[in-house]
Amino acid sequence: MKKIEVLGIGFPNKGAELMLQSVIERLIEVPDNPAALVLQTYHPYKQRIRFKAYQKFWVEKKFFELGRITELMPKTLLSKFGIIKDSDIGVLLDCSGFAYGDQWGYQKANRRLGRNIKRWKKEGKKVILMPQAFGPFKNQQLKDEIGLIIDHADLIFARDPESLKHLQEIRPDAKNVTISADMTIGLTPKPELALPETAGRPCLIPNQKMLEKGGLNEGGYVDFFASIAKELLSRGLNPYLLLHEGPKDLKLCEDIKAKVGANIDVICPEDPVVIKATIGSSLFVVTSRFHGFVSSLSQGVPCVATSWSHKYEMLANEFQIEDAIASISDPSWPAKIADRCADQDYMVEVRAKLKATSQQKKKEVQRMWDKVKSCANL
């Protein structure tokens, strides 16, 4: 059984978990050709076991990866603990989403891929960077590291034209760099998985990274979402807050709820597929989470996003929806969002447009998976 290691997945980020679930559906739990899923040891056991993942003992100590010591241990012993040796991994899939750019720095690229990719290639492993955002790359050390990764990866999928441009600026003639839509577009949850209490209601998804990476003031950000909720309530709509990640996002949800001063539900599903299905049953979505944006658009749900990275604008362009990126500094947006939700003609028109585009994107994602399987001999 081929062993596939997935890199770049962080728990409890539900977007990352959706990407992992996509890999499981397409490459791991395949009836005629199943594979073993492997995650590194730093993932919590309780999270890892939900996805039936083996572990690769890979602990760093002063820039030395102690996991190499498992190469000296017998497989019979390691198998008792569900540990897979690095030398037994046949395919490495980097599902980072967004980890390579000046915002993240050189060390992340080096630790995740750069320091090992030459050796992995020499050992015959396939290294594939799944659809994700890249760049910009202004730091020379980071540029050199990305150049090394491009030179030794088997396939690299940029998730949008701007990300592709950033990679091509480093290696203009690279044949292994291409473009594909986000892989989670191809993951279609069963409608019955949606939480029934949220069906037909506006959904609000905050994101702590708007403060960490977007440079926003927390009070202003909370006020923005609270204003949207109040506008929706004033029109007889019943919004809810959806938790798409961990404790920091939950605090934002609770702060927004307190600011609204009305009884507004905070929904916290554990299963990422349930979250996507729930988004799909919503009336409208306002999201600062990228995969909340993907899950909305790919299921034909009208949506507005706030942005801290080019990946949001690029996704809006992909789905050909104008005026979908909200400016938090513009006080007209809360009322504008509520007006859209109440405009039935607008909702019908946008839903039809999004569903048509989604079908095209799903075909693109299928072509991406075909390339991955061919490259990795799966």
Name the features.
Rossmann fold, Polysaccharide pyruvyl transferase family protein, 15 helices, eight-stranded parallel sheet, alpha/beta, 378 residues, 2 domains, 15 strands, single chain
Describe this structure in words.
The chain is an alpha/beta fold and 378 residues long. The chain folds into two domains: 3-184 and 362-376, Rossmann fold; 191-360, Rossmann fold. It is built from 15 helices and 15 strands. Helix 1 packs across helix 11 (272-280). The longest helix is centred in the C-terminal third of the chain and has 33 residues, at 344-376. This is Polysaccharide pyruvyl transferase family protein. Keywords: Transferase. Pfam families: PS_pyruv_trans (PF04230).
What would you call the quaternary organization? single chain
Q: Proportion of β residues?
A: 15-25%
Work out the helicity level.
40-55%
Query: In CATH's first tier, which class of the largest domain applies?
Result: Alpha Beta
CATH architecture of the largest domain: 3-Layer(aba) Sandwich
Structural class by sheet pairing and helices: alpha/beta
Order of helices and strands: EHEHEEEHEEHHEHEHEEHHEHEHEHEHHH
Q: How many separate domains make up the residues?
A: 2
Mean pLDDT: 93
Give the low-confidence spans: none
